[in-house]
């Protein structure tokens, strides 16, 4: 993943964390993303250079093909996938069977304006958020790995969140 665009993304994420007051290495970090954003978050969590700067402890993905990313054992990953979403399977590999990775397959919840089983509709980020809220409500989860993921990440899940938007452009080609 050593592309110039990846380097720009890593810089933007680091800038967002600095803007939020995250001191490098001093506090736990949860990275999250939908689709390609989840793939980028997972790759950042696996990147030794990024991990030297920030103490990534968890990753949350929705609709992301992350099975091929080798995540360190001390990073807990929760991957949400809609049953009929093709995107999480684009990497064509089964999820690793490790204690630090939890894959949850959800039924796509209805979302106004989305066809029930359209390829685009089941991949919609708002639909993932709704499905997770309805099917993974706190207190209703029984799977021990998922319960542990919630316990490990309680501070992130109950805390205040801030969103930063960055425009990232690929640097011009060098002659």
Automatic annotation (TrEMBL):
Residues 21-104 form the GPI inositol-deacylase PGAP1-like alpha/beta domain. Pfam families: PGAP1. It comes from the Bacteria. SUPFAM superfamilies: alpha/beta-Hydrolases. InterPro entries: AB_hydrolase_fold (IPR029058), PGAP1-ab_dom-like (IPR012908). This is GPI inositol-deacylase PGAP1-like alpha/beta domain-containing protein.
